[in-house]
User: What shape does this take?
Amino acid sequence: MERFYLTTPIYYVNSTPHIGHAYTTVAADVFVRHQRQRGRESFLLTGVDEHASKVARVAAAQGLEPQEYVDGIVESWRALPARLGVSPDFFIRTSDEGHKRFVQEFLERIRQNGRDDIYQDVYAGLYCVGCEAFKTEDELVDGKCPEHDVEPEWIEERNWFFRLSAYQERLLALYERHDFVLPAFRANEARSFIESGLQDFSISRAGQPWGIPIPWDPDQVAYVWADALVNYLSALTYARSGEDLVERFWPVARHLLGKDILRFHCVYWPALLLAAGYEPPQQLFAHGYLLSGDRKVSKSLGNLVADPLDLVDLYGADAVRFWCARSVSFGQDGIASVDGLRERYERELGNDLGNLLSRVTAMIARYRDGDLEPSPSADSPIAAILEPLADDVAARLDDFDLTGALERIWEVVRALNRHVESTAPWQLAKDDARANELDCVLWDLLDGLRVVAIALAAYLPEASERILDALRQPATLDWREVAYGRAQRVEGLAAATPLFPRVDEPSLTV
Ligand SMILES: [Zn+2]
Assistant: This one.
């Protein structure tokens, strides 16, 4: 089976983590956990871009060296995956020696590829001294830098350029593959940009002390994208000491990204790779935004919640993961309300799933003293409901349909709830002649919950483990267990404690 290597973008350290970063990180983790359940060798990469142009300026203002400054700020970024129940296989920092060394090799490979793809030219543009950065016309407001309220100066600087214009045909050929970029409308957006004609771009900046020196011209540093994009490949060269993972995980790489960085990933990056003699990645998936602008504030919590990510402390990582996956169809833009998180927590996690577990375990405890023998039956309606689940969910997740796969699992959760109502075990329990029937119903419900727990493990890792534990079932998450009739006999099973207990929001104000 083909290996699975998935990356999040590396995040700029000049802000602190917010729900937008959490969104991509959670999605990546769900995909990787799922592939692991199917026995696929997988690798999840995330990390930070520390060579942002603002870093040196902010560090200087605090009287710190840039490296000291990023060494401090990186901690909140390292904590982000753990807060969300995510364990990446590697956390890359662009100030890592291994990354810097590889970027220099990478740029050198392009320069020596015999096609004159890197050349020197004058970069001319509007430069804001306050920002220490070139500005494009559309970044200005009334001709001024909006951050500093000053007119930028016209500056000419000798830089190194990459001959992107030579790669138009080879890039378009990649887009002949229908799934190189997903969703399809994003592929069309990137293709149109390529077809409209590509401009060479500068890969270096002069006079900046913070960055990776251009190996043949150390007075210049690599421009932010010529540094940052390379992380997806560089990480594989030093993530495991003494081991080069490039052969194992390149080019089977898949990149998740927000739509705002589509052009850099879908045009610049494959061209740079081709120029350096590497295969382009297997696939790129651009997602939309979970939230827009000022709608982040909760009606009930108001300013107590600066960011939905803060709700991890209140509702737990599983609840925030669930809300990320379920609120907005992955790939589309949407507006997920913060109040929606509470609502889904209570209605879907608490009621649909949590109460189902409580009821089923309580009935087995009460009517069977917690003991139940396997009693699968080929014509069980639960068998029919569970039978297509494994393939359906796997197919959706292979297509990055994070939201659709979860909805598919939730259909089963709802079906199990209906089965409780329609079979009414509390009625069956009154009639000794129907004891076998009750055994079958209880065992089907137990087995259905077991299947749901394994199918949900990629989304709700904590809850999944607790459900299997409450059902006295093995903790194995092997995808082949997502099938009817595999529950093991139980003895001494007790009514489960609430899976998603009520959360009293007033505790926030204490
Ligand atoms: Zn400025």
In short: The chain has 19 helices and 13 strands. The mean pLDDT is 93. The domain at 338-481 is CATH 1.10.730.10 (Isoleucyl-tRNA Synthetase; Domain 1). The first strand starts at residue 4 and ends at 12.
